[in-house]
Amino acid sequence: MSSEFTKLFELIISASLINNFVFTRFLGLCIFFGVSKKMETAVGMSITFTAVMMISASLSWLIFNYVMVPMDITFLKIIVFIGIVAGLVQASDTIMRKVAPGLYYKLGIYLALISTNCIILAVPLINAGEKYSFIQSLAFGLGSGLGFALALIIMASIREKLELAEVPAPFKGLPMAFVVTGLIALAFTGFSGLITL
Amino acid sequence: MAAQTGKVNYIELITNGIVKENTIFKLALSLCPSIAVTNNLKNGVLMGVAVLFVQVMVNITISLMRKIIHPRIRLPIFMLVISGWVTITDMSMAAAVPDVYKQMGLYIQLIVAFASILARAEMFASKNRIAPSMADGIGMGIGFLFALTVISFFRELIGKGSVWGMPIVHTKPLLIMILPAGGFFAVGILMAFFNWIDVKFFKKGASAHH
Questions:
Q1: Would you say residue B190 lies in a domain?
Q2: Which residue, among B164, B142, B127, has the nearest Cα to B43 in the 3D structure?
Q3: pLDDT of residue A116
Q4: In this complex, how many residue pairs, one in chain A and one in chain B, have their CB atoms less than 8 Å apart?
Q5: Which of A38, B8, B171, B177 gives 20 to 30 Å between its CA and that of A55?
Q6: In a domain, B210, yes or no
Q7: ipTM of the complex
Q8: Which residues on A lie below 8 Å from B113 (Cβ)?
Q9: Are A96 and A111 in contact (CB under 8 A)?
Q10: Segments forming the whole domain that contains residue A180
Q11: CA of B26: which chain A residue's CA is closest?
Q12: Mutual orientation of helices B98-109 and B74-96 as an angle, nearest 10°?
């Protein structure tokens, strides 16, 4: 049992630090550069993101393993997963508006952004490709969400300072953000080899 | 976009996607593969071709179906069409180039989440006839292919000292350019370079702002 736990822990650490979605897998970059301008939006996005990621990971695991594998239609996984994600985002949007209007007011706009994000689709695809078990998929979803949150928060705190810095004119805005991300990514390569799965 | 009046300037449609609205350098959309698969020229070009194919086919399909799609449910239908064509591309590439596919299969599947493809379907193909939609798709696709080719060319040249796997420079390569971090540096510097050209020669404001 304890080795099972260590394995899950390793999975979370590896998904969040070593194979960080932004810095080593380069996914979700549009959102990453889009919402990392302010700390407040970055935090809101991270919370929404991690929650949706875990739900979509578990939901698509169930559908993949109990519906698609028995029916031998795994080649349709892209279509099915994007349907699940879009439906899930729409559903949580509606539910949140009815059940928790306060929360919806705060996090609602991030939900709409999520449906166009590739990470949310990548998690189920990787889960299916690696043949993770249900608990492992959940752990992978959690780890990826935390990793993305970490990346967003680091980046937001740097960009708030960057506003005041004097940057050469052609580098203003996005190009500079890219170079900064490169530097963070360089720092994150230090994590590789932390755990060998 | 004078498609409705009958006279269509195809040249302008195609160059629009390559220069004025270049997906990566100008709109800063669909950035994930621009860094993920560009550590050598071959992968970059193949990814660009895959996107070009999907973009053109999606534009044609949407344009064909534009009169029978109910506007209320257009987005789910667009997504279905896109994921259908992505599945086709994914499976053909898995069969045709298995060694490359092993490295970038995930990113091929994720073409489905490209904002740029959905945006062209929504903004152009659903309102225009087939020929202009196809030209628009070709322009956007070539623009993307061009961006990926430039990025991956420089990264492979500097990071490995080779082009398309053939060694060219025999000095010690700057390994960082093929590492993940190098991708961010390359895109950032190239973006700044294109901004600089814009400001210097066309006297426009820097356009790659978010």
A1: yes
A2: B164
A3: 64
A4: 129
A5: A38
A6: no
A7: 0.80
A8: 82, 116-118, 121
A9: yes
A10: 9-191
A11: A174
A12: 170
